[in-house]
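Problem 12. The chain below contains 239 residues. Write out its predicted structure in C-alpha cell notation.
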Amino acid sequence: MSADRPAADARAQLAELAATASGNGGMASWTGLPPAVGVRPAAVLILFGVLDSVPADHDGSVVSRDLDVLLLERAATLRSHAGQIAFPGGRVDAGDADPVAAALREAVEETGLDPSGVEVLGSLGEVSLAFSQHEVTPVLAWWQRPSPVHVVDVAESSDVFRAPVADLLDPANRGVTVLRRGREVFRGPAFVIGRHLVWGFTAMLLNALFDQLGWTVPWDRDREVPLAVPGADAGDHGR
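Solution.
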C-alpha cells in the first residue's frame, strides 16, 4: 500500500487479517505466548482509522500518513502497569455478552468514544498471560465515524491519544526494552511515539499485527530503548 493512498485502504487488509486469524492460530501464535491456566477473561480494542486531521511526521512508504491507532496512558497512581501505554480494554464482566462487547464497553468508559461509529472487524483469538492471570481477546476494529475522545476517569488514565501508524513503523522509533529479574532477562519490542514509550504487551500486539499485515519496515532489533518506569512489571501482561 503506497503512502499516497487513503488510510481507508488499510481497512481491507485489517478485515482480511481478522477473517483469517482463527485459521492460523491468531495472536497467540503470532506473539508466541504459551497458554496458561487459571486465567480470567479480558479484552482490548485495537481501533484503527483517521482519528484527526494531523498526518504522521514520518512519510513512510507502507501506510498512509493519516492512518492512526487509538492508545491511552494508564494513570501513574495505579497499582499495576502504572504509566504504561495500553489499548482501551479490561476484564470481561458478567454483563458483557462476549469479549467484543467488553472491549467496546471499556473503550467507552476509558475514552468516551461513540461506539456506533466503530466497525468491529473481528477478534484475533485469545492470548494467555500467565504473569497477570488473564486471557486477553484483542478485538480489531475500524473507526468509520470518529468521535471525540478524552480521559474519562483520571484515576484510570492520564492521556488518550492517536498514534500515527507511519510513525510507529519508522525504524528510528523502534527498538527493544530489556528487563532483568535475577537470572531472567525479558526482551520485547518497543515503540517511541512522541513523549510516550509503548512496550510490554501492547507493543507485542502491535509488533505482531504489523508483521502479519506486511507493514513492518526493517528495524534494528539490537537497539535497546531505556526503560525508566517506576514499579514496572516484567511482563506488562494483562489489565
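Discussion. DSSP finds five helices and eleven strands in the chain. Students who got a different answer should revisit the alignment rule from Section 12.3.
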